[in-house]
Design brief:
Mean pLDDT: 93
CATH class: Alpha Beta
CATH architecture: 2-Layer Sandwich
Helix content: 10-25%
Strand content: 25-35%
Low-confidence stretches: none
Radius of gyration: 12 Å
Order of helices and strands: EHHEEEE
Amino acid sequence: MDACRIEFRKSAEKDLRRIASAHLPRIVEAISALASNPLPPNVRKLADTDHSYRIRVGDYRVIYQFLSQQRLVIVGLVRHRREVYRDL
C-alpha cells in the first residue's frame, strides 16, 4: 500500500502550537504513523460523518479525515479530550 499524504488544517496547526512540549513528540509520532496506516487498530469513526475519524494519544485526540481515493489524511483538530468534541 502506498503512503498517504498528510495535510494539516490551520486549526490543527494552531492546536499543536498550544500543546505542552512534553506531549508533542508522542502526538507528532502518532500523526506521522497515519501516513503508512491511516486506519490503525485504535481508530474510531465519528458518528454521522463519512470520512472523519479520531485516534487517542494519551489525553489528546487527533480528529482527521481519510480520503481513500486521493490517499490523503487531513488533520483537523488536535485537542485535549475534554475540549475536542465541543467544536465538532
